[in-house]
Design brief:
The complex is a heterotrimer of chains A (about 270), B (about 280) and C (about 280). Chain A is of the alpha/beta class. Chain A is built from ten helices and twelve strands. Classes of the chains: A alpha/beta (about 270), B mainly alpha (about 280), C mainly alpha (about 280).
């Protein structure tokens, strides 16, 4: 056990358990033999070059791979007690427990309010008072409440990029998931908006287990507790090194890791 | 210089072609207005034709046309929307079944209208026993406008960015909710365009209707009655009724005005839909 | 998958099957009505019989086939170059506002119902031709009206494929010091070619299938025309004229001509697909 800034992280009791995961698209392998444990209420950063399977790993965690024709997923993933890859698992229930935010902000072309309320309604939350309370809470969590509370009825597309992305995060956490997956959430934003979003991501760890894919090594270092490096060898993505962020950045054990981390200077 | 001269010749031809087309259009419109505008008034639009259409109005014919179009759209719109959704959301691009559907729709779009008439007569009138009726005519036209509706709706749906679908999927939206709340609203302007193109094609149609909805120019009392469309009325007046030209002019003018009105309404509605999406 | 989604999926699939089955259904019905007669008298009789007289069991279709082909080819032959010229006009010569206005006019022309074209031809064009060379209702009138009907669609399609020509290509042609003709000839036409061909083929199909306008201005006499001023009857007009009273073998003969039309149009469609596929996507 290790205490970090008042937040206790239990490293030895994994919340997300990935065992021997393999992914292929139209019989072209993308990920192979990947095992990874993610502890509860922590932020794990997945780093690595483009095409190393980072996004594929995320997509497996909420079975978005189901939507990709020709994809095959093998191995075992547990989130809490839930067998993620079991065909009997209710995908919609799984996705409620595992929220996701994408690289490009994806507000629906509806009002801010409807973006939130419709999502809640999809999960049977229709009680007016509860809906209003949940929406306000989620928007406060991402610091958007004060910026938009007077124009909840206007189109979400009218928000700035950073605001849109925070709305997407709010939309995901309004469902009170256990896990939040962030797929390069800041890479489409300008540095200032990116900083704001990053600050709110750090806050998320208090209540959620966060897995973030990022290209930005400095960001991984700033926000995450744990870091995993994926690398493409023989055309297939594999896990190279995994450990506490401070340790991985200061003393990488694997030569690929040190080369990759140094690459940021060159 | 040689290229200068080539350019000048090209310019002359291009201007001549454009001018020619404009003049012909002006002639047609002018002719219709000159002979038709005089007859066109409220009474003409509401009263029944007398003396084989030489006198009186086109009230029952407008009603029949409206009913035929209503049947057409009531059948073709849901079927077309559903097929378009199926093609964009449930099939892979290049999948065998999807390709097959696409191919057969391309074929359907190319079928000559008189062939639709033959088919409608054999299938709807004879085999299904609907006889010469507004229902037969409407159903025949529904087959005809189906590919147009599907094609335009499909384009609208394909224009919805894939991120929207991914995000909905990640938030565990059900397929029906994604479709209903996100995809169809986004495709609404395209659906309207398809609707207008379909209506335009249907309302202009004559050959497919002559042997399905029939010639009767009385006010229809049910969908099983035969009803004469505007286009058939024009055809009949000009070919079979000596002295029917004046009414034919006025009816042509009406037909074109109806078409223009539909177009205008549709473009206003489509713009409304777009505006609402940006502001609400 | 929730129940509602499963129902939706099946409903969508059923709709797609219905839509796809429509074409098959049409072909089936034409075939069931037409094939008994073909089986009875053999396909060659439709070409070899001495004349078209279904009441006496004679089914020569060649004059009407010739009529259809002549009218169609004549119309497309006139409309295609004119249509391209119209597109050249909007892209190279017309000031912006005029081009937009002109496009609107083309759209209006394209939207005028064929029966109105036919009517206009009957009351305006046919008397004019009659003044030059009676009877007026003739192959020429058919070609003119059909060309007028096809022209706006060809022009709009050409306009669209000109618009799809990569900007850099045009800029490059300009940079080489080419004039408008040179730019058109070397840059625009070659890269718009497949689009133009597809449009022409599809409009050929449409012209071939056109019934009312042709019926109204062509005179409808079953004969091989000796000149442009002779009346002709097309296959489509024949169906529309005789369906009213045809029964038995006569009716079946009309379905044979419908099936024939259908086959030709589908072949044209395949040709169009071939042309647009032959050009690799940019």
């Amino acid at each position: 056990m290790k205490c970090d800034g008042g937040v206790c992280i239990v490293f030895d009791v994994p919340f997300i358990c990935v065992e021997n995961l393999s992914v292929s698209y139209a019989s072209r392998p993308a990920l192979e033999a990947l095992s990874l444990n993610v502890p509860s209420c922590s932020i794990t950063a997945i780093i690595g070059p483009s095409g190393c399977g980072k996004s594929s790993l995320l997509a497996c965690l909420n079975r978005l791979t189901d939507d990709v024709p020709g994809s095959r997923v093998g191995g075992r993933i547990r989130i809490g007690e839930l067998e993620v890859l079991d065909p009997k698992t209710d995908v919609l229930a799984l996705r409620r427990r595992v929220g996701m935010v994408f690289q490009k902000p994806t507000p629906f072309p509806l009002s801010i309010w409807k973006n939130m309320a419709l999502t809640l309604a999809q999960h049977g939350i229709k009680d007016r008072a509860l809906v209003a309370e949940t929406i306000e809470g989620a928007l406060r969590d991402v610091g958007l409440w004060h910026e938009v509370k007077d124009r909840l009825g206007t189109s979400a597309l009218a928000l700035s990029g950073g605001q849109q992305q925070r709305l997407c995060i709010a939309r995901a956490i309004a469902l009170k998931p256990d896990v939040i997956l962030l797929d390069e959430p800041c890479s489409a934003l300008d540095p200032i908006a990116s900083g704001v979003v990053e600050a709110h991501i750090k806050e998320l760890r208090r209540r959620f287990t966060v897995v973030i894919v990022t290209h930005n090594l400095a960001q991984a270092r700033r926000v995450s507790d744990l870091t995993a490096l994926l690398w493409t060898t023989d055309g297939v993505g594999r896990l190279v090194e995994h450990g506490p962020t401070a340790q991985l950045f200061s003393g990488p054990r694997h030569p690929i890791t040190s080369a990759y981390l140094e690459g940021r200077h060159g | 210089m040689r290229s200068r001269r080539a350019d000048a010749v090209l310019a002359a031809f291009a201007w001549a072609a454009a001018l020619g087309v404009t003049v012909v259009l002006a002639l047609i419109v002018f002719e219709l207005l000159r002979h038709g505008a005089g007859r066109l008034d409220w009474a003409f639009l509401t009263t029944a034709p007398r003396n084989a259409g030489r006198e009186g109005g086109i009230g029952p014919i407008l009603a029949s046309t409206g009913l035929i179009l209503a049947v057409t759209m009531a059948v073709a719109l849901p079927l077309g929307l559903a097929t378009a959704v199926f093609l964009t959301e449930l099939t892979r691009r290049g999948g065998v079944f999807g390709r097959l559907v696409q191919l057969s729709l391309d074929g359907l779009a190319a079928v000559p209208s008189i062939v639709f008439g033959l088919f409608g007569n054999a299938f709807f009138c004879k085999t299904l026993g609907l006889g010469f009726s507004i229902l037969s005519g409407g159903l025949t036209l529904a087959c005809m406008v189906l590919p147009i509706l599907i094609r335009t709706t499909e384009e609208g749906l394909r224009a919805v960015p894939p991120e929207t679908r991914n995000a909905a999927s990640a938030l565990a939206y059900s397929r029906s909710a994604t479709l209903w709340h996100l995809l169809l609203p986004a495709a609404a302007p395209a659906v309207i365009v398809g609707l207008v193109l379909g209506l335009g094609r249907a309302i202009a149609e004559t050959a497919a209707l002559v042997y399905t909805s029939g010639y009767v120019d009385r006010m229809p009392e049910s969908l099983m009655d035969s009803g004469r469309s505007l286009s058939i009325h024009i055809f009949d007046l000009s070919m079979n009724v000596a002295g029917g030209d004046a009414t034919a002019y006025a009816t042509s003018l009406t037909l074109i005005l109806v078409l223009l009105t539909i177009n205008a309404l549709a473009s206003v509605t489509a713009r409304r839909v777009l505006e609402r999406r940006l502001s609400v | 998958m929730p129940r509602r989604d499963r129902i939706l999926t099946w409903a969508l699939r059923a709709a797609a099957c219905t839509a796809a089955a429509t074409l098959a259904l049409i072909v089936c019905f034409l075939a069931t009505e037409a094939l008994p007669l073909v089986a009875k008298i053999g396909p060659l009789r439709f070409l070899r019989d001495a004349l078209w007289s279904p009441s006496s069991g004679l089914y020569q279709m060649t004059p009407m086939l010739a009529g259809s082909l002549l009218v169609t080819l004549g119309a497309v032959g006139i409309a295609a170059p004119l249509g391209v010229l119209c597109a050249v006009f909007t892209h190279f010569f017309a000031p912006r506002g005029v081009a937009t206005l002109f496009r609107r006019a083309l759209e209006l022309l394209a939207g005028i119902p064929s029966v109105v074209y036919g009517f206009w031809g009957l009351v305006v064009l046919v008397p004019k031709i009659n003044a030059v060379h009676p009877p007026g209702a003739s192959l020429l009138a058919g070609i003119a009206i059909l060309a007028l009907m096809v022209l706006p669609t060809v022009a709009l399609a050409a306009d669209a494929s000109f618009a799809a020509v990569p900007r850099e290509l045009v800029a490059n042609a300009r940079a080489l010091g080419l004039g408008k003709w040179g730019t058109l000839r070397l840059a625009v036409l070659p890269s718009a070619r497949s689009g133009l061909c597809t449009a022409c083929i599809l409009q050929t199909g449409r012209a071939l299938g056109e019934t009312m306008a042709v019926l109204m201005v062509c005179g409808n006499i079953v004969q091989f025309p000796q000149s442009l001023f002779d009346p002709v009857r097309t296959l489509t007009a024949n169906i529309a004229l005789e369906m009213a009273y045809a029964t038995g073998d006569h009716r079946a003969a009309l379905f044979v001509s419908g099936l024939l039309l259908m086959i030709v149009v589908l072949l044209l469609l395949l040709a169009a697909e071939g042309v647009s596929r032959a050009q690799p996507a940019r």
